[in-house]
Description:
The chain is mainly β. It has helices spanning 70-73, 96-99, and strands spanning 15-22, 25-29, 32-36, 41-44, 50-54, 59-65, 75-77, 80-83, 86-88. A 3-stranded antiparallel beta sheet has the order 4-1-6, with no helix packed on it. Strands 3-2-5 form a 3-stranded antiparallel beta sheet, with no helix packed on it.
Amino acid sequence: MRRESAPPLHTHTHESIAYVVKGKVKSTVGSEEFIMGPGDVCQHPKGVLHGLEAIEDSVVVEIKSPAPEIGAFLAIRKGGLRLIGLTVPPSLFGRADELIE
């Protein structure tokens, strides 16, 4: 995730866990906010409003359960990454090799 990027808060019909590999992010889960760094993990429960905001360029791994059907979850479209009805502009994300040392 690029520094200062923050897709809108949203909910899912599945559970997810976000693990910070590199960088610093602000995690919002319901009405709580947490600052997370490398090695930190947070849970995004099913149906709870949540989101991540990159405080600095960051690499975050997100694990979802049950795994969404990949065709519905990820579809590369001109102008951005499409996540089940949410378009995330390419400017929010860099190439992985630019973010990982």
